[in-house]
Amino acid sequence: MPINIPRELPAGEILKREKIFVMDEDRARTQDIRPLNILILNLMPEKEKTELQLLRLLGNTPIQVNITFLRMATHQSKNASKYHLDNFYTTFEMVKEQRFDGMIITGAPIELLEFEEVNYWDELSKIMDWTKDNVTSVMHICWGAQAALYHHYGIDKHALSKKCFGIFKHTLADPKEDLVRGFDEEFLAPHSRHTGVSKEAIINHPELFLLSKNEEDAPFIIMSKDKKHIMITGHLEYDATTLADEYHRDVAKKLDIDVPKNYFPNDDPNKKPLNTWRSHAHLLFSNWLNYYVYQQTPYVWK
Fold first, then answer.
1. Known catalytic membership, residue 235
2. Which of 48, 142, 164, 191 is labelled catalytic?
3. Which of 205, 229, 235, 280 is catalytic?
4. Does residue 274 register a pLDDT over 70?
5. What is the pTM for the complete model shown?
6. Distance between terminal CA atoms of the chain?
7. Is 257 domain-assigned?
């Protein structure tokens, strides 16, 4: 089934070329069906790239999905055009009286700041509080996951001695959990972050469950026991070249950056990297939409 997106959204043409089933708003209104309403709070600077990454995954399931993009009203994006934001994004004030079946809160390249130093932290806190009664399930990615752990569960992040950057092996604590149905016992996923969260703090928290960790014993997929919040410290949504783009960007800026681990063939940055995590990215998002959103959300919100 398709994802329903604004007619002129630039990602739409790319998705159609990739054979992702896309339906614009006009056609969707003619269908007698109850689609899922998914809100995406896109905090990433290159918004169009993140839109495309997430829409690929949300559009590859049997469930029809309406997408609403949300931006922060208290922060001015430097990388997205005003036209794009005005035409394809809304603000919290415009949606706070609505209810959504699912929500995604992305990462943001601000992890070295204390949470309260982020200029939109107060607004984000209000949104996270609002999700408790107005969203069935929320997926938090990277910095978004750290923000959720801090805001909802009082678990702070800590700086790493070295950037976690590359493709890492991961294992599962419970392969029978619906979120990871179909996952291999060992699977790969990208990470790109300067901060982490305590595995012990998560394991010892009565409301949380550590579902997956990476080969360095760091938390990867964390769930609240009521299954309302899913926190993913890495980036299964990334394209094959995303880490390469980050690496070459930092090299051009003459920053101290290592070659991403287990990423370029023979660790040669001149060679094209392969996407070795795509199937698990699709499984994660389809399982989330099915078991944690579609199977849990009310047909009619009251």
1. yes
2. 142
3. 235
4. yes
5. 0.89
6. 26
7. no
Asked whether residue 161 is marked as a ligand-binding residue, the answer is no
Domain count, the chain: 1
| DSSP for residue 291 | I
Residues ≥6 apart with Cβ < 8 Å to 259: 247, 267, 269
163 is in an annotated binding site: yes
Summarised one tens digit per residue, pLDDT across range 177-210 is 999 999 999 999 999 999 999 999 999 999 999 9
Give per-residue pLDDT as tens, 212-269.
Answer: 999 999 999 999 999 999 999 999 999 999 999 999 999 999 998 999 999 999 999 9
Active-site annotation holds for 237: yes
- The answer to whether 249 is annotated as binding is yes
157-161 long-range CB contacts below 8 Å, 24 or more apart? Answer: 157/111, 157/195, 157/196, 157/197, 158/195, 158/196, 158/197, 158/198, 159/112, 159/194, 159/195, 160/193, 160/194, 160/195, 160/196
What is the CATH classification number for the domain harbouring 18? Answer: 3.40.50.880
